[in-house]
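Subject: Sanity check before I submit

Could someone independently write out the structure tokens for this chain? I want to compare against mine line by line before I put it in a report. The sequence has 615 residues.
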Amino acid sequence: MRSLKILLSILSVAFLTTASFAHINPLLEGKKVNKEDAEADFREQCTTASAQIDQDVNNVRARLTTGGDVWWDRSDGRYVVPKVEPGETEVSSIFAGAVWLGGTDPGGNLKIAAQTYGNSNGSSDFWSGPIHPETGITDKPICDDWDRFFEVSRQEIDEHLALFDAASRGEITYTEDLIPFGLKGWPAKGNQYFFDVWEFELPNTPQALAGYWDEDGDGLYDPLRGDYPVIEIRGCEEPNVPDEMIFWIYNDQGGGAPHAETSGQPIRMEIQVQTFAFETNDEINDMTFQRFKLINRAEENIEEMYFAMWVDADLGCHLDDYVGCDTARSLAIVYNADAVDGQPGTDCAGGVPTYGFEVPVLGVDYFRGPLNEFRQELGMSSFTYFNNTPGGPPPGTTDPNTAQEFYNYLQGLWRDGTPFTFGGDGYNPGSTDSIAFAFPSPPNLTGSSHWSMCTEVLPEYDRRTVQASGPFLLQPGAINELIIGVVWAPDFAYPCPDISRLVFADDISQSLFDNCFDITDGPDAPDVDWVELDRQVIAVLSNDSEPTVSNNAFEEYNELDLQAPEFINIDGIDIPLDSPANHYFFEGYKLYQLIGPDVGIADLEDPEKARLIFQ
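---
Independent answer below. Compare away.
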């Protein structure tokens, strides 16, 4: 039987504790803008989205923007892990990322929406805000209103649940002015307080907005009736709350603004994003997650449709990265080409900070792709890459510059339409040995059947990856999900590292997704009351809150170990997953007397700093 314990530390007087950077922007110059997709109506075109925020709850500090691009500040990479204190040197593991979309209308016209680096100078394919569900268009005032993020913390939700629980018992009156800010301004369907917080109205849309738990089942969000924000995942019915959630909306219609990034025609796609993370003491503390809800506002079918996640992952220095994939896990992998991060040595062009001699490995897990017209879920249909370095690799393997070239990469082809083929760098014009997944072998495996950048000893370039799903028929009003998780593990032995630790971390992230992100939390701390007597202090510990407030209500904590196998074998007998052997239970408290307020959990076994006084 597994067990978890709460540590309570009591100081003799009344002290209690309970348990930047990347390469120069590679923006392509001289792009032509296709004017044919500009709307000829009275609406004012949207301008480039500008809001930015940091996702910053665990060991990752990840910059987000509202214009379809993430993980950079429109100049430098800002996916900083490990997170450091302000003023210390930040090393980024990703330069930028974005969702790519593409397909054809019934007339065969190509529709493309994709973002790379263009938002830094106003060359946008995406703009802030929703699209009107009936007209299929938006305009500048709507885009401007929605050029913002909506953030809520686990702490605010716990505060709300405690207030609602107290009000349910008749102890207090829960009023509008007591609702925590993040819940009060949450853009969920029917939120009557939204206008008071943000001074603009929520759209009335059948596809809903930000996810929430509907306590009274009336289909409208109202915290005073017990509702609160949750992770919204198709097929997940029980409410789950991470330590931080951030929500925003963007679209590719932009009030008729031209697609200046790809020069493509708009799809009329609305994308609602929910990004979230957990603060833990295991591998989950180095992860972030993004869930994209894609709503087709077009009036016609989009055929041969593809969705993809494009990532420019730079592990510190951008000039010496290799990429690959794990097809069984739908996982993109980025690792260093040699034993030292930098070129030359631990230095990098442009003064980009590097990981030096302690080089990590990063993965992007493609948890869920879109549904086709038969409601069948599509997984990752291709993993491809391309190069940034001008004058080095073949021109057909570099950054896309036209709508068709973006679409080629979405289809799992090279920029010039050449299929990816097995061997070398994957660019072998004339070869018929085409493949959908580039470099699917772990970098430390050798032999003719294994293919990785490490076994091929490829040149050290700056590379980007594309994880795509398709093709499928996208119908008007269709709602799809794209869900990814970024996993990271530190300090590997290079070159050609054994990436088992990253795979282990990814399996944890996959278990989280499979279990609707129901993370295994330890028992919540009890309520503590103090009774002061002559030369004596008595701590009264209680857990008589309702289960909606504490997961250890009445000291009945019981949580499934998400890493437990489907069956656990004990003495030759397969015990099913719901057996107590696969669960954690509350066992009790430990109380410590500490020498001072600076003593932490790591010091509890030091007799010079802490003394166990009760168990």
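---
OP: Matches mine. For the report I'm noting this point. The longest strand covers residues 463-474.
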